[in-house]
Amino acid sequence: MNVEALPYTLLLILVELAIGSLWITLGSDLRGGVTRGFVMTMALCVAITAGLAYWTAGAISLGTEVDGYRLDPGTFPEMKRALMVVVITSAAYMFCVFMGWDPIGRLFGIAGSVAGMIAVVLLAVMVAPPTWGFPAALNALVGGTLALGAVSVAMVWGHWYLTEGALPSWPLRDLAVVLLLALGFQLVVLVVNLAVPVRETPTPANPVDVGIFGNPALYLRVAVGLVFPIILGVLSFKTAQMKAMQSATGLLYIAMGAVFVGEVLAKGLMFLTGRPV
Question: Which is nearest to 71 in space by CA: 15, 140, 16, 137?
Fold first, then answer.
């Protein structure tokens, strides 16, 4: 990975984690089955993570390229403002749930989710220039957002079963399905973005001598970041069906690490090759 691209990689992953967790938490809250304490905890985590993303964005001096990877800096200020909206609305969501004002809290959650989608779109515009097109960057970011959000929320929700044994099993089962759908979507996006030629190849100061198909990081991204968590997601779904919640949570722990590693590899490959995988 380009050293200069590390802050941008951190920013992208923090944004995906915060916004994805908000989307999945709100969806779980609207569907029901999860506890008020869980929603409050996740809303607080989203506010903190989005705040870290905003702080990271503020520390970046954005130019027109990062180590040979061309950027579109025009949308960056609006993206930061959208992130701040996510921070404020997530904190308000948490406060409303704490006070028992659940319907009002969900309205804040919806507002934050919309602002989060705007932030993802604006980030896609920023990193899209070398790719084959804006949809390549947007689909990759949306897939990463859903995968990180699903695996994180599912893993945290699994811990609620360890303290409250009377909870229904279907919310964790459904979260495992969402994770599998997100990973499947990422796999489709990866295949498309590998097949379509990029508009321009980045020119880093220390280029890798092999093409993307000769880069071992691609195969690690597929095996560790997609195939392995898909297997773990299926196993988690099966164990949740059997109401073996401790086992399902342990599997999701491992899946969360694999998804995070996959996202880091994906961002590194994007900045090296112009392909959002």
Answer: 137
Q: Predicted confidence band at 1 (pLDDT cuts at 50, 70, 90)?
A: low
**Residue that the structure tokens 């960056």 belong to:** 76
Return the structure tokens found at 271.
Answer: 């900045």
The string over 50-88, giving b where at least 16 C-beta atoms fall within 10 Å of a residue's C-beta and e elsewhere, is bbbbbebbeeeebeeebbbbbbbeebbeebbebbbbbbb
Whole-angstrom distance, CA of residue 234 vs CA of residue 149 = 17
Tokens read off for 137: 């960057």
3-state secondary structure of 140: helix
Query: DSSP letter string over 51-85?
Result: HHHHHHHHH----SEETTEE--GGGHHHHHHHHHH
Q: What predicted TM-score, i.e. pTM, was given to this entire model?
A: 0.95
pLDDT at 3: 75
C-alpha 123/C-alpha 138 separation (Å) is: 8
Task: Give the model confidence (pLDDT) of 189-246 as tens digits.
Answer: 999 999 999 999 888 777 777 778 889 999 999 999 999 999 999 999 999 999 899 9
- 65: tokens are 């390229």
Q: Are the beta carbons of 25 and 42 closer than 8 angstroms? A: yes
Secondary structure of residue 165 in the 3-state scheme: coil
| Contact between residue 79 and residue 122 where contact means Cβ atoms under 8 Å apart | yes
Q: How far is CA 207 from CA 49, 72, 121, 267, 271, in A?
A: 32, 22, 29, 16, 11
Contact call for residues 158 and 20 (beta carbons, < 8 A)? no
Cβ-Cβ contacts under 8 Å for 212 (sequence gap 6 or more)? 194, 218, 269, 272, 273, 275, 277
* Domains of the chain, CATH where assigned: 3-273 (1.20.1630)
Tokens of 228: 């392995």
**Is residue 84 predicted with pLDDT exceeding 90?**
yes
